[in-house]
């Protein structure tokens, strides 16, 4: 049993069951035992591999998207580039390298990184190789009053969700409690939860018994915060993640450890816990706060519209045969429908009047 599991068992035995969102917040970001707080979960020896870790092309193309957006903004002399959850800092390093093609753009950028993990902050500083940057615990800490570009790759899937289950007696909230013997964590249901009605996605209000609705309060308020800032200060945001445009009543919460799926409650603090992102809900929250929204667009089509195939051929032309094969394999993995091309999606948000931005016609 993980140390955090033991701590949670004790807490639940004393104070009663907790919501799935409370469980996830502890499991991912507990200051000492949270999954992201302790080490480096990325790569072949970690638990998962993200798009920027698959190929430099991902960050480079996002860099070009940022440069075009900067031009669309009229080439301001100062622009905040805010990355949410930068992981190892790979995307940002690749983005900044690509940004050098437009020297005025690179000079305008002020880097702001929103990162909760001290271990990952250190890795990000290394990847930036001395480039000046400021770290924050949340977007609310990033200064206001200047235009901004916000990038979030596989960030929203890490924000805590609540789960509601439709039973024959109505909606109830899924809770994390104790197994009958008291020695393990187990899912249970709350008493009837009429408050759930106010939180449920419209598409699931009349769902049949057995349906599960996932609601991400932190993600929705962050999308609204981004939308409000874009409307007020100008700029755009690119949110990339796995998810759907409309919920279908199936639960998506999952645990991953060393590239294999495992029980969500088995090892809090040691496994990566994520849920698919409800892009439709994020787009609505940002739109209600004043921003325009495009998407979600399939990642494959978005990257193709930005020119990933040409970039891959150019890189392959300058590489040896083995490396060229790796570049083409990475292109396939990022864009093919049966790989990341369809499951991963892109939501573009912008200040009113700025868009449609590069890739939005994908
Ligand atoms: C799955 S990783 C994605 C990393 C990176 N964007 C990539 O594509 O490789 C999630 C990142 O978000 C950070 N993170 C997770 N929850 C957070 C929170 N509540 N506040 C700030 N950062 C958070 C993690 O520490 C990590 O850097």
* Assigned CATH architecture of one domain: 3-Layer(aba) Sandwich
Q: CATH superfamily membership of one domain, which one?
A: Vaccinia Virus protein VP39
What does the radius of gyration come to?
A: 21 Å
Oligomer: single chain
> Strand content of the residues, in percent?
15-25%
Number of strands: 16
Helicity level: 25-40%
Coarse shape: globular
Chain-averaged pLDDT = 95
Q: How many helices does DSSP assign?
A: 15
Could you explain how this protein is built, in words?
- The chain has 362 residues and is an alpha/beta fold.
- The chain has a domain at 36-160 and 215-303 and 345-350: Rossmann fold (3-Layer(aba) Sandwich).
- 40% of the residues lie in helices and 24% in strands.
- It contains 15 helices and 16 strands.
- The strands form 3 sheets. Strands 2, 3, 4, 5, 10, 14, 15 and 16 form an 8-stranded mixed β-sheet that branches. Strands 1, 6, 7, 8 and 9 form a 5-stranded antiparallel β-sheet that branches.
- The longest helix has 17 residues, at 56-72.
- The radius of gyration is 21 Å and the shape is globular.
- The N and C termini lie far apart (46 Å).
- It binds S-adenosylmethionine (SAM).
- S-adenosylmethionine is lined by residues 28-29, 36, 50, 52-53, 85-87, 91, 114-117, 120, 153-155, 158.
